[in-house]
Give the backbone structure.
Amino acid sequence: MSRDVSDFLIDRMIEWGVYRMYGYPGDGIGGFFGALERAERDKKPLRLIRPTHEEMAALMAVAHAKFTGEVGVCCATSGPGAIHLMNGLYDANMDNQPVVAIVGQQARVALGSDFQQENNLERIFGDVAEYVKTISDPMQAQLVIDRAFRMARASRKPCVVIVPNDIQKLPFKEPAVKHFVSRTGVGHASTRITPPADELKHAAEILNSGKKVAMLVGQGAMDATDEIIEVAKKTGAGIITALLGKAAVPADVPFHTQHLGLLGSKPSYDMIQGCDTLLMVGTNYPYGEFLPKTGQARGIQIDLLQRHMSLRYPMELNLWGDSKTTLTALLPYLKQKDDLSWQNKIVEDMKQWWEINEREAMLDAKPINPRRAFYEMNKRLPSNSIITADAGSTADWYGHHVLMKRGMMGNLSGRLATMLAAMPYAIAAKFAFPERPVICTIGDGAMQMLGMNGLISVKRYWQEWKNPTFIVFVLHNNDLAQVSWEMRIEDGNPRYDTSQKLRP
């Protein structure tokens, strides 16, 4: 039986290592969904998970990328279905996650007319995606899908493949050999990039001469936990984790001061204010006002994405490389510091901070102090649990009171900080790791947005999870709390009940 373009796209994605995708159907993507049905019937190793909304599908794809390190995949129909993907794709863009979206479109004969629901998808996705391409001929299918996966991984950005409905059902054509050989070249380029020795020696000279070294670590260092700790031990540094990199360093490391900024700790702030050397590893931490003043500290930044270099602080040295291999190569050049007074002070400051955190959690409130709820939850978290947080006030308590043990995972929408991501993130985490307990922490505002819809997916799929533990932790205060605080802080206004009050 000859394959159509949709059959080929599915087979090619399987070759790229895709085994799960999230999507919602519609007439613009009907041919592709027909191929998904055939793939399921033929027991091909690619499964469609259908949430209740395209926005959920896109955010699930982002979460899949964050929790697994793989390319996340979502699909949707044309028109409003495609537009619903935008929030998740912007989340992927701003948090540097590789996502590929397969988007339908009405048949080519309708394009350029006033066809109902149709719009210029290439223009719409052009701002958010690293690569957007419409397959206008079956011979293009291989080239377009291959480029999308390569570019998503290389750029750590979303890419979009648009497939008109009539193209989806046409017989697949092999590309001309002189342009591209069909069955070769599937595979991502290695990201194990190490800077040259002279740059590593320069970095070591900066760190060896520093007396007050601060490390700021992000999600790009998730696989470099041991190397980060070893560098800190040698240089006498304190470690700060960006919120997206929370799980990169266990909370029980005594010189780990958690986060920096509005959701951070005082020891982190004091460390940055007093440091003479700053080492940023795998982070595009966006709040420059919390970093050292220009000229205060000698700076080194390690990152796979060159566009991040010196973006937040004028670094003396930028090292292009992935965190783990770069730190591994750097370690032999570092000298063991004898004077650890800087690091020891950080340890003592953190002991005081934990005491303050506990006292704040124990303050009485009616009906309950939300800090106390997170504090008590944290004490009960299994060492293999996965935690997701909403972008509202739950992010505050997640930052302050959830302490990551080695092996735990946690995430949230970072730079975009979209509400409602906690639930699709949690569901995608459960599909990725069905044997692990997952806890979704979410405000009642986000729960009313799309969180409740996610429970429909949980009901549909939970029985197939090896460990069915899926906890939804809702902060129910009948208020859009984060916005209420912002109104008070920015304008000095009382809470505007008409806009802030939530009613069941």
Observations:
- The chain has a mean pLDDT of 92.
- The chain has three domains: 5-168, 197-349, 362-500.
- The first helix runs from residue 5 to 15.
